[in-house]
Amino acid sequence: MSDGALLTTAEVTRYRVTVNGRELRIDVTEDAGGLSVRVGEGGPRPATLRQVRGDTLHSFVVGGRALAALVDGHQGEFTVVLEGLPVDVVVEDERTAMLRQAAEVSQRAGGETTVAAPMPGLVVAVHVVAGQPVAKGASLIVLQAMKMENDLTARADGIVKDVLVSPGQTVDQGQILLTLE
Question: Which of 2, 92, 136, 144 could bridge to 122 as Cys pair (CB 3.0-4.6 Å)?
Answer without folding.
Answer: 144
